[in-house]
Amino acid sequence: MSRRRKRRRSENAVELNLAAMLDMAFQLLTFFILTFRPVPVEGQISLRMPPAQPVTPVRNAVQAGSDAANENPVQGLDSLVISVIPNAAGGISSMAIGEGVVATLTGLNDRLKTVLSDQASPFDQVVIQVGPVLRYDALMGVVDVCTRQRLPTGQKLTKLSFVELPDARTQ
Amino acid sequence: MSGSQYREASAEPNLTPMLDMVFQLVTFFMLVINFKAAQLDMNLKLPVVGSARPVDTKGQQDLLVLNINAFGQLTVYNTPKDVESYIAGEAQSSFLAARQKNPNLQPGDELPTTVVIRADRATPFHLLNRVIKACQEHGFRNFSLKAMNKRAEAES
């Protein structure tokens, strides 16, 4: 009697055919495996780059030397100029801040720190003058040093402009 | 009689655990897939910069990704593009999108889009500068220079 009841229950049970669903799931899995390509994590340096402007902006209605009370000769000069001269291979041959030559990126870092830590420093942006054949990785080394600096206000230096120097080989 | 005999002899494997496992795998791959990676040219060798940090914009910022190879060629979704016309077109779309949010925006004003520059480490400056200048002329001011912060990742 109990055997007969069991058979009746198994005959009434609904059995879903999972094979079709499994086929579809395997197709989806194959698609995702084939299109899967892990992307390495990239970093970035965020900059605000306005178009290059004159280093000494001419202000309206102001004549040179008209302000006798001005004891700061660099007032109005708010761009610090860094020149990067490339070598033939596209690396850095020499660098200069204003007219002072620096040999290495460490030297550039130290010099920038000294200039920008001065509370009287008027600079709020850096103009990088670059030779045309300088490679991007060498340029990024200089940009990296610049963006590590802090202005006297405590803000990070993010305002940079690039100016292309004439090609030394054509001169 | 013969029908019931056949039913008793047939072997029906239980597919439920296998289906569970396959769905788990599908879910995993769906979560890790990144369709944005398609716009990145993975053949470029990015420079290595110690202070380059990944920044999560949480999808709030409009980004214009420019891949520039060592010959200064701009590629978008692995298709070479003319620098001037492509950037002009993107600037126009960015302006129209920005104007929806800020009706006071005028042509020539600063655009809110950030230009993401992915340049090969061997790209000479004069070729890169051509792209940067074109962006600046069309109103882009915010730039993001991509780099790797570990040499091992850059080589891979």
Question: Which short descriptors sum up this protein?
Answer:
heterodimer, A: 171 residues, alpha/beta, Nucleotidyltransferase, domain 5, 5-stranded mixed sheet, 4 helices, B: 156 residues, 5 strands, elongated
Short description:
The complex is a heterodimer of chains A (171) and B (156). In chain A, helix 3 runs parallel beside helix 4.
Structure description:
The complex is a heterodimer of chains A (171) and B (156). Chain A is 31% helix and 20% strand. Chain A is of the alpha/beta class. Chain A has a domain at 79-170: Nucleotidyltransferase, domain 5, CATH 3.30.420. Chain A has a 5-stranded mixed beta sheet with strand order 4-3-2-5-6, with helices on one face. In chain A, helix 3 (105-117) packs parallel to helix 4 (136-147). The longest helix of chain A has 17 residues, at 19-35. Chain B has 156 residues and is of the alpha/beta class. Chain B has 2 domains: 2-35, no CATH class; 38-155, no CATH class. Chain B has helices spanning 2-9, 16-32, 83-101, 125-137, 151-155; strands spanning 63-68, 74-76, 79-81, 111-119, 140-147. In chain B, strands 3-2-1-4-5 form a 5-stranded mixed beta sheet, covered by helices on one side. In chain B, strand 1 (63-68) and strand 2 (74-76) form a beta hairpin. In chain B, helix 3 (83-101) packs parallel to helix 4 (125-137). The N and C termini of chain B lie far apart (67 Å). In chain B, 26% of the residues are buried. Classes of the chains: A alpha/beta (171), B alpha/beta (156). At the A-B interface, helix 2, strand 1 and helix 4 of A face helix 2, strand 4, helix 4 and strand 5 of B.
Structural class call of chain A reads alpha/beta
Low-confidence stretches of chain A: 72-76
What would you report as the Rg of chain A, rounded to the nearest angstrom?
A: 33 Å
User: How confident overall, as mean pLDDT of chain B?
Assistant: 83
Question: What's the CATH topology label of the domain at 79-170 in chain A?
Answer: Nucleotidyltransferase, domain 5
Number of strands of chain B: 5
- The number of helical elements of chain A comes to 4
What string, H for helix and E for strand, traces the elements of chain A in order? HHEEEEHEHE
Q: Which strands sit side by side, in order, in the main sheet of chain B?
A: 3-2-1-4-5
How much helix is in the residues of chain B? Answer: 25-40%
Largest interface: A-B, 48 and 55 residues
As a whole number of angstroms, the C-alpha radius of gyration of chain B is 25 Å
Quaternary structure of the protein: heterodimer
Count of folded domains of chain B: 2
Across the major sheet of chain A, the strand order is 4-3-2-5-6
* Helix percentage of chain A: 25-40%
Structural class of chain B: alpha/beta
